[in-house]
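**Tokenised fold:**
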Amino acid sequence: MIIQAFLRWLETAAACDRARAANALARAYLASRLQSDQQHAALLAMSHLLDDPAPQVRLGLARALATNPGAPRPIILALAEDQPEIACTVIAQSPVFQDADLVDLVGRGDGLTRGLIATRSGLSPVVSAALAEVGEVGEIVLLLENADAALSRGCLARIADRFGHDGEVRKLLLDRADLAPEVRQRLVSKVSEALAESSLVSNLLAGSRLERLTLEATETATLAIAGSASRFELPALVEHMRSSGTLTPALLINALCTGKADFLSEAMAALSGLDEPRVRALLASGRAPAVRAMFQAAGLHRDVAAVFVAGTLLWRQAGIMETSADICEALLSECRQLGARSPVVADLLEIVDRLQRSELRAAARSYAQQTALAA
């Protein structure tokens, strides 16, 4: 009876009064102060209010229901498709939405709707994946900034594929500890590309030097990523690099000289077709001809393979060598004559020489810092 009287009153009441009444009705429904028949009648009355021509009436309803888990789902879904101010009130806060509801809103909604969903607390991997698939840059930034959103590795990889060119998205991705190594390597390559395309950098450096520095920076970052990746993550990283053509002799000799044994063995397995345990055994204790055959099976030139064999044998004696710079120096000395006869070896030794200088400078900086701290 009360609800019927309420509906009759609505026909003549002013909009501001209807808005207050809508809010009070919704709060009474949530507080369960109504008998069961009145509760159902209240639900019908709220459904009727969804068609009220005054936005403030529907907004009053939304404000009362937005944060309550007991709000009727049909009312919440209807309010989510209302004009922006009303829709925002429930989309950003209501715990009533199911994942399927939010995915549907992501697909049908506009940028504002997707942005509000991206900021929701407790966002599930399913909804995050939907946003990663169709969201624009601004919405993706909001999603990545939402510390309470669950993002799978596949979701992060998709974001990297779509927006790895955007500096803000790239930074947010690279700051994440749960980013897969192969995705991190892909983004590092994009950083190098962005630097190479920068007019400021290109005006300061000649083309050939810029290309070399960009390549070296990418390789250094890639090896740092490889060094921090777990054994479980390495196969995916290596496969990504193999398919993208970045498992170059230059990168591999860098890995060998800096002692990235796990990465090197995984790379050799991918390139040679041998099982990884077999590759690891060959690197650790295989005879020189067998090790050379493995490197050649990986596609390395015969003379280049000889350099890799020499480096492998030197690492087996690494107990008497303290740093990667020692390995580089010994490898340069041992392969100098071969480099004089073979241009491909000469190019490879030039990389080893630059690596040795880089390692020495890094060691010098570390020594200076330790000395300063001890003073």
